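May I ask you for just one protein sequence along with its backbone structure tokens in two labelled lines?

_____
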Amino acid sequence: MMTSNKMMCLASKWDGHTHTELCPHGSGDKTATMIEKAIDLGFTDYSLTEHAPLPKTFLSSYAGDREGYETASLTWEQVEAYLALAQDLQRAYKKQIHIHIGFELDYLAGFESDRQDFLKRFASHIEDLIVSVHFLPDEKGQFWCLDYSIEECQKGFASYLAMPNRLIAAYYQAVYEAVQMKGSFPKSCRLGHLDLIKKYQDYWQWPRLGAMNPLESKEAHSLIGKILDKAKERQWGLDLNMAGLYKPYCNDSYPSAYILQEARKRGVPLVYGSDAHSLGNVGHAYYMYERI
């Protein structure tokens, strides 16, 4: 059922982006407690989308902070434990809420075959999928994390940050490659926090309005249009992610008003995502989703 381009289940309140007690950069709050809060808040559907493990060979191409790499995702050894936890919760709460089991999968240029192998290996377990870009290569082809820290961005993307239009274009090009990726994708699939690149926008002092805003350049808009066209073609949705509202240098939801407007024009569906990593995040700013 679609209402105002919002993707919904048969019931009417869905959190499509959440994490679990196994997330290495999460709070450790029990997933069951988070689900119980979602039930109390009236959610009828809840997607567990834990970070899928990074490719086993990715570390050799990663130049950033080692902790950023080690805390980015589940390890390969944790996948079965995560699926077992998710299935146990699905059974325990089946009369109260519909739990969808899935992953948040990182797109990494040059590692497409690994991503495809992961999707194929766990296809029978994946009911819901978010495809995100958290890592970007520098001009030498070495990867750095976009949202781990300001210091990591300054070190890894110094030349790009001198001309932010280039950094933003490189990011959206990676997202465009992500939405074209082949593989065993589930029917329910979305692009995660489409403009994550703006997480530190206030720190960089990017203007919010007018032609000087690098996020609103002609090149950025052109790439966004291509991304949304391909998402529409593939029947993918967008993660309408509220986590950015609570980040000290973002202070905005992902994606921006412009992207939401363009998504509506194309009929690309939107799914609310708390991106909850703690009990306190559950249901964050759902009221804003209701107003969109």
The chain has a mean pLDDT of 94.
